[in-house]
Amino acid sequence: MAERPSFDQVPDLPQEASLASYAQSSAASRGRRWPEGEHTYRSPFQRDRDRIIHCRAFRRLEYKTQVFVNHEGDHFRTRLTHSIEVSQIGRTVARALRLNEDLVESLALSHDLGHTPFGHLGEEVLDDVMAGHGGFDHNRQTLRIVEHIERPYADFPGLNLTWEVREGIAKHSGPIDVAAAPEFREYEPERRPPLESQLIDLVDEIAYNHHDIDDGLESRLLDVEALAAEVALFGEPLARVRRERPDLTQRQATREALRGLIDTLVSDLIGESARNIAAAGVTGVDDVRAAGRDLVGLSSEVGAANRLLKEFLREHLYRNHRIERMKDKASRILYALFERYRNNPRLLPDEPRGRIEREGVERAIADYIAGMTDRYASEEYMRLYDPTVRV
Question: Which of 28, 155, 289, 292 has the most CB atoms around its CB within 10 Å?
Fold first, then answer.
């Protein structure tokens, strides 16, 4: 076996030599909250990505709802597989625009760390019970996780991510409202984030629109003919593949149509963003930050078609009676857990109970519930309310 090279034998890896002038380089990073030495052959953003992948909150995404609760089927997306798909699309867009793929990947893989069990319904419940106690928002919770809640290192709390990744967590969904999230104030709320952050919300949307159709058809909650008739982004490639490949099965034709849908959205995002960047005349990250508007976006025509797709999914999938039944059960579970813990905080495990004096009882409970998987929340509900279940 070849001898493993020592660190001083490892050559410099020019990961960022081909970046555009308007991309965010790791060499220009503002660094970490807690100073650390740099790694020999990994950039700061690569290290951030690795820290995110290895944290407990990331692993728990495997058992958190995207649309369907985990136990409903082995092939439906979860928050984890969704995050991987967002990362894949994000890297494609970043490479085409010569942006920093490592920064994009770090933001894509971390963007849902703060999500609760049972999808957006869980976020709504926690925001309701936390009214008067600071509210609850999954982006704010993601920042809490990487700054305070995760504690894998001996020398500092959190993951000690770079300023740019923490900024992207705060800003990727749009402008910061410091009145609602005062902890975001340090991330320059008056300025736009780098292009790497600007693209995350859109590739997130492209990913979930694509896979929610796939899962909706797989579950038979969506009808392929109705979808094709009302949503041109799906209907046009489906008609084309049926015309050109009449030998394909319905499932094969549907998969080809989904490929056409995602190709249209991603290609348009790349093309329109490239045009916006050129028209704005930006030559560096400071120009991007001072542009006054996001430069990453879909064209008006494809953006309008994408909105029709989202409206169709909202009406025919997210409001389907089966999904509503699941949400109703999940809502009762989460309200009951919060109320039980607030009435008797001694029911909490040692770690969340130990944060009560510092964070307040409501925030400590919200942090604990937000970190639960769907399965754990359901089982905890049974342990607390069903006397026949072992505690």
Answer: 289
Give the CA angle between residues 326, 331, 332 to the nearest 5°.
Answer: 105
The DSSP string of 50-89 is: HHHHHSHHHHHGGGSBSSS-GGG-SSS-BHHHHHHHHHHH
Q: What is the CATH number of the domain that holds 82?
A: 1.10.3210.10
Q: Please tell me the predicted confidence (pLDDT) of residue 68.
A: 54
Model confidence pLDDT, tens digit, residues 146-159: 999 999 999 999 99
Residue 6 lies in a domain: no
Predicted local confidence at residue 2, as pLDDT: 46
Supply 224's token pair.
């392929």
Mean pLDDT over all residues of the chain? Answer: 91
State how far the Cα of 251 lies from the Cα of 13, in Å rounded to an integer. 44
The residue among 390 and 235 whose pLDDT is bigger is 235
Measuring CA to CA, how many Å separate 16 from each of 48, 59, 107, 144, 169?
16, 29, 17, 30, 22
**pLDDT of 305-332, one tens digit each?**
999 999 999 999 888 888 888 889 999 9
Q: How far is residue 391's CA from residue 384's CA, in Å, rounded to a whole number?
A: 7
**208 in any annotated domain:** yes
Name the 3-class secondary structure at 10.
coil
> How buried is residue 377: exposed, middle or buried, by Cβ count under 10 Å (0-12/13-18/19+)?
buried
7 inside domain: no
User: Range of 285's domain?
Assistant: 42-385
Asked whether residue 70 carries a pLDDT value surpassing 60, the answer given is: no
Residue 266 in any domain: the answer is yes
Measured in residues, the chain has a length of 391
The per-residue pLDDT for range 335-364, each reduced to its tens digit, is 999 999 999 999 999 999 999 999 999 999
Other Cβ atoms within 10 Å of 123 Cβ, number: 20
**pLDDT-derived band of residue 14, with 50, 70 and 90 as boundaries?**
low
- Between the alpha carbon of residue 268 and those of residues 48, 206, 301, the distances in Å are 29, 11, 10
**How many domains is the chain partitioned into structurally?**
1
